[in-house]
Design brief:
Layout lengths: L2 H66 L3 H23 L7 H22 L7 H89 L14 H40 L3 E6 L4 E4 L1 H7 L18 H11 L9 E7 L2 E13 L5 E10 L1 H38 L6 H32 L7 E3 L1 H18 L3 E4 L8 E3 L1 H17 L6 E9 L2 E8 L6 H4 L21 H11 L4 E5 L5 E8 L1 H7 L1
Parallel strand pairs: 7-9
Antiparallel strand pairs: 1-2, 1-5, 3-4, 4-5, 6-8, 9-10, 10-12, 11-12
């Protein structure tokens, strides 16, 4: 008999028994269905509303995280979309109050959600650039309110579920009565059907159980399995095919396991022999491979780090963030970062690059971190800085003497010189002054890089510094017929800065703006508060900066010369960057070619500095 025939016979017997019992059970089931319908009408809508409000609330929490990550527009749109959904389901829940205490719970839930919306409106007042402040506000203010509202939603669902269970118990009581009344009629039929079912089940399930056990053995690596298949039905044929498949899998495994082991050993040997440090992590940020050079860079034992989470090894926050972005497929900056460590009381510096690891089909499988030892380069850079500082210091005295001598010669011998000689003397004076400016910039830059430039910090008004810088540069602006103005508000709070150094930064930025702005143009200085910092900018409507040059504009000796505008020494912006960095600020540029440029830097507020100290 085939498997189909066996199943049809078993189903036929069972169907005959069921028909006998169902004739009596229909009336009891009708009453039971009426009770069940009542449960669904009174409680199902409230449970659905509670779950929907929970889902909408969690999506709003995800929207707040998007805003904290910098995706403000997307986060606000998602928040507002699910705010509407939450309020719709809240209205439905308020219209279906059937349990004592449910109304008070919905009232408290609505008040809590109102507090959550109020907290979100306060979040909108924080600038997107202040990511740390956004995260702090979220953790301290919005997350507790979110958890409270979600708990109320869960409580709403629980009380309705409890009510459903109570009605269910009543329905169960009715079901028990139906069972006992039906059991008197169907008891004999059940006994007959049970015996037949046991026999048929044992007949059908035995080969299936054998194949299930064999499948588990194969999954664990044991391919030596055996299945009895005496029956001639479809299950017997399946058992025979399964045995053939097991034999083929065994042969394939024996053929390829050697190759896999050899490839694994070859890959490990390559990683271990690389001079640079190599760290390999999977997409769950678990360490797959780590050579001794990388272990030295991270200060860990390479043979004890396999399988650990990368956060247990990496202590640098920026490096961990790069690894996280790479393993999660996010877009991140590609330029290397530099980390420092200490080995036997000697500092070591590494340039670190993080690269995604992908298959040929583009599937992300992890990330590879490369550590390049740049300690010698850092030492060479320090020696270069010391040399430049020493050379600049030694050149200042003879340059000063040259400038004084040329000045005296120009004043006393002007009438004895012809036109050509006067022009040569003027050119010598200009070149000597330009060389003196370059030497002074080199000396200041070297002192700043080595930490030897003295800084006199105090609470100062950015309005006064801006006015002073504008006053210094006003003659040059008038000479070029360019409108120069300060738009800094007097009411802005004081900043913690060295007024002389910040004045130099502003005059340098204004000088650059005047150099690249044509007659009739405008240069303006402005400032605004941004959290615990002041954001100061110098903007012009001049020639602008090419996109490819903006990334290196703050590097040393980078000059922009387009034929019409001559650049300076190439140290001004680099020195500005180091001075702003010494004030715990940042500087950047926004520009479009032909539409001007805006240089912006930040300074800490004096009240923040006082609070921290």
């Amino acid at each position: 008999m085939s498997l189909r025939s066996k199943i049809l016979v078993g189903n036929g017997v069972a169907l005959a028994l069921v028909v006998l019992v169902c004739i009596w059970a229909v009336s009891n089931l009708w009453r039971l269905g009426a009770a069940t319908d009542r449960i669904l009408r009174e409680n199902y809508l409230s449970i659905l509303a509670a779950e929907s409000m929970t889902g909408a609330l969690e999506r709003q929490d995800s929207a707040v995280l998007l805003i904290a990550l910098g995706l403000t527009d997307k986060g606000v749109a998602q928040f507002r979309e699910h705010e509407s959904q939450f309020l719709q389901w809240l209205g439905r829940a308020k219209g279906n109050i059937t349990i004592p205490g449910e109304g008070d719970l919905l009232k408290r839930l609505e008040e809590g959600y109102t507090s959550y919306l109020t907290a979100f409106s306060h979040l909108g007042g924080i600038p997107p650039t202040e990511r740390q402040q956004l995260v702090t506000f979220y953790l301290k203010t919005m997350l507790p309110v979110f958890k409270m509202v979600r708990a109320k939603c869960e409580r709403l669902r629980e009380i309705n579920e409890k009510n459903m269970f109570e009605f269910s118990e009543k329905a169960g009581f009715m079901a028990h009565r139906a069972v006992w009344s039906t059991a008197a009629i169907g008891g004999g039929a059940v006994l007959v059907g049970l015996a037949f079912s046991l026999w048929l089940t044992a007949l059908l399930v035995k080969p299936i159980r054998q194949m299930t056990s064999a499948t588990a053995e194969i999954a664990s690596g044991n391919y030596d399995v055996h299945i009895e298949h005496p029956s001639g039905d479809e299950l017997g044929g399946l058992a025979r095919d399964f045995m053939e498949m097991a034999h083929k899998l065994k042969a394939f495994h024996e053929l390829n396991v050697g190759k896999l082991v050899a490839e694994k050993r070859r890959s490990e040997a390559v990683i271990q022999s690389v001079a640079d440090g190599v760290l390999v992590v999977d997409k769950d940020q678990k360490v797959l491979g780590l050579n001794p050079a990388a272990g030295l860079a991270l200060g860990v034992q390479s043979d004890q780090s396999i399988g650990k989470h990368v956060l247990e090894l990496v202590r640098d926050q920026e490096l961990f963030e790069r690894i996280r972005q790479a393993t999660e497929g996010e877009e991140s900056r590609q330029e290397p970062i530099t980390i420092s460590t200490t080995f036997y009381d000697k500092p070591r510096h590494y340039q670190v690059s993080v690269t995604r690891a992908q298959t040929e089909s583009g599937r992300l499988v992890g990330a590879v971190v490369l550590f390049q030892d740049v300690t010698k380069l850092k030492e060479l850079d320090r020696l270069k800085t010391d040399f430049v500082m020493t050379a600049s210091h030694e050149l200042r005295t003879p340059l000063t003497s040259m400038i004084l001598s040329i000045g005296n010669l120009r004043d006393k011998a002007r009438e004895k010189l012809d036109t050509t000689e006067s022009q040569l003397l003027e050119a010598a004076a200009e070149e000597a002054e330009r060389l003196q400016t370059l030497v002074n910039d080199l000396l200041d830059f070297s002192r700043l890089e080595s930490g030897r430039l003295e800084m006199a910090f105090s609470a100062v008004s950015i309005h006064e510094i801006a006015d002073k810088a504008v006053a210094v540069m006003e003659p040059q602006a008038m000479e070029k017929e360019i409108e120069l103005a300060s738009e800094v508000d007097e009411e802005l709070p004081e900043v913690w800065a060295d007024p002389h150094k910040i004045t130099w930064v502003l005059t340098n930025l204004i000088g650059n703006a005047l150099r690249y702005t044509d007659s009739g143009g405008h240069v303006r200085v402005g400032a605004e508060r941004a959290a615990d910092f002041l954001r100061v900018w110098v903007a012009d409507d001049g020639a602008g900066i090419a996109v490819e040059a903006q990334a290196r504009i703050f590097e040393k000796f980078v000059k922009l010369e387009d034929g019409e505008h001559l650049g300076g020494s190439g140290l001004g912006l680099a020195l500005c960057k180091e001075l702003v960095k010494a004030h715990h600020g940042t500087i950047w540029v926004n520009s479009k070619p032909g539409k001007g440029a805006a240089f912006t830097f930040t300074l800490p507020l004096a009240q923040k500095q006082a609070g921290e100290s």
